[in-house]
Request: fold
Amino acid sequence: MDTQTLTTAAGSESAPVLGAAVWHVDPARSRVHFHTRAMFGLFAVLGRFERFDGTLRLDEEGRASGSLRIHTASIRTGIGKRDRHLQSEDFFHAEEHPYATFELTELQPEADGYEVAGTLRIRETNVPVRTPVTVRPEGDELRVSARFTVDHDAAGLGWAKPGMVRKTVEADLELTLVREDGAA
Reply:
């Protein structure tokens, strides 16, 4: 992969090349949300993680690496009892597994944006993720947007009474990354 050719996904216009840099997620201006359906698909379940951090590194040879670490105990759906259940052994087991982590292995330009590949680790399970993303450089910031589907069973979150919880969850990320001073 050659990040020297990475440009923004703003239509057909070329944007400045992303050079070597280190970027950090600004949690105050970012969000990690999810949504699914419950009770035989009748009710929408919307939620978010309140605590997360991450880094993106682009090196001189054009390689990308990085991670996003999500604090599993920070899950919020607006219903305390459900939040405690999601933090329990049935789902995230936040006490024993305080983080879900995405490790970036590839950032590839595409015709209308980018594609990222990596591994999402939840509990002891590694889930491969490959999804389109939008990356918009804005001065010393990057705006990164992505949406992908997580299968409960594949992620080791197999608890679900029939009809109670849908088998998949849609994850939505809107991240603002700030360039590290002196990084190059």
In short: The radius of gyration is 17 Å.
